[in-house]
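pinging the channel bc i need a second pair of eyes. not urgent but kinda urgent?? the chain im working w is below, pasted from the shared doc
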Amino acid sequence: MSSAGHVADMIARMRVNRELSKRKNPFKKKEEAIYEHKHIGLRFQEPTAEQKKRTFLWIKRENQRQLLLDRWMIILYVLLFIFCFGWFVFQIN
């Protein structure tokens, strides 16, 4: 493709982009969406004190478990690094 083809393609893309930028919002169409101006109300029961307590304890247990897992992973990585570094040092000597 010659340089004239590249220039023509660039000009065509510039024209298309200019037309798109003239619209205020390219995602806002003239026809209304199906669910526009409609409110779908959802009703939830208030959780009881027992449910709140159980949920809080479950979240607390999960956080503690994740913290423990993170600590073990850090310890494992540090020990693995020390082992690999020591092995490398002894291999050089």
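so Residues 27 and 40 are 23 Å apart (CA to CA). and The radius of gyration is 31 Å. — does that match what u expected or am i reading it wrong
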